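User: For a reading group we're discussing how well predicted structures match intuition. Take EamA family transporter. Before you show the prediction, I'll give you the sequence so everyone sees exactly what went in.
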Amino acid sequence: MTVKIALRDIDPLTLAAARVVIGACALYTLLKLRGGRLPALNNRVVWGFAIGIGVLSSALPFALLSWGQQYVPSAFAGMTMAALPIFVLPLAHAFVPGDRMSTRKSIGFAVGFAGTAVLVGTGGLGEVDGPLEIWARFACVGAALCYAVGSIVTRRCPDVDQLSLSTAALLTAGIILTPIALIVEGLPGSISLSPLIALIYLGLIPTAVAFIIKVAVIRSAGPSFMTLTNYQVPVWSVLFGFLFLNEALPPQLFLALVLILSGIAISQWRTLVGLILGDKT
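Assistant: Thanks. Here is the predicted 3D structure of EamA family transporter, as structure tokens, for the group to look at:
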């Protein structure tokens, strides 16, 4: 919802770059206040992971979501985030030791993937018609896929201070994305109060603060566990889109959401039961 508000006065690439830069500055300030430092410049392995995390978890998905939300409702973009755990399942199987695809997880993946297909194929979103709307849907789903790959890269990164890694990732994302935004869209024009507040909020909370939390959880509990939080995203995005942006959604989208969440429930049944029962294991 906040991205949708910011897009009223800010171009999509500029919005993505600006929120990354604001987030990077906030994390760098916090890092210095805590007496920390960025990874050593000669540590090519950690910086390689930081670049990968910055691109896959910030620069690319932020750009895709901002561009896509010019043509689809914010609630639709939020619904695509529910597909993130589905994408993580096969990736974790291939790249994360001990996180294997069982028969149950495979069934969950199939059900969730079917829901993603219904989501992308749903028409009548009420924003625009034609090829741009179709590409916008794929852009939002592509952002979810970027987050999924980024979570695997985060998990595979060598042991390093989490705040230092988060700051390095956002700094590299800002360095990559800012010149691209300036070349493609030029300097931003005048920005009214609501989009400006939305931009500052996006940079500080869903970018800076959320990035630290995300890295910490992925590094400790794993990418599959982290992506379970995404079942909340479509609920709140639909609610906020309806209440504050007057967005109306076709019923097919809710069918897609049911399929995706069912796929997550099937694939992560033991984890969900453990959360409900308070099982720390």
